[in-house]
Design goal:
alpha+beta; globular
């Protein structure tokens, strides 16, 4: 089994800072993550009294990226966990303005992932699912 680099607890993307608030599941297994998304410029402007900070939250189904060799730079990116791509947004990742809404979606997805293996085993025992081999 390939060892995956875990999902980052904090990262910066498109002028936003992301902070992991909650995660379900183990590294390398189906998982859900809840991030708070903050624009540092907005925080500074709020401190200066120019605007009100609005929180943003993202709930994602954690994806797995393979080890990749980038020939142009000679750099190898290790196998890793990562959030969904922009093209996958709306199917594997969701944005929320209210933390309560994001937490509801997180809980819904986490519960579904916990139930999925149990449902698959029940269906397999009934002969309704084939896993090949």
């Amino acid at each position: 089994m390939v060892k995956l680099r875990p999902l980052l607890n904090t990262f910066r993307k498109d002028d936003y800072d992301f902070c992991l608030l909650s995660r379900s599941g183990e590294v390398g297994k189906p998982s859900v993550a809840l991030y708070q998304k903050i624009n540092p410029e907005h925080v500074q402007r709020a401190v200066e009294g120019d605007m009100r900070i609005s929180d943003h939250f993202e709930v994602v189904l954690v994806q797995q990226g393979r080890e990749t060799f980038w020939a142009h730079s000679g750099v190898t990116t290790p196998a890793r966990e990562l959030p969904p791509s922009a093209e996958q947004w709306g199917r594997l990742g969701w944005s929320f303005m209210r933390r309560a809404d994001a937490e509801w979606k997180f809980d819904q997805l986490a519960e579904g992932l916990e139930q999925a293996p149990k449902k698959a085993v029940k269906l397999r025992k009934k002969g309704k699912v084939s896993f090949g081999g």
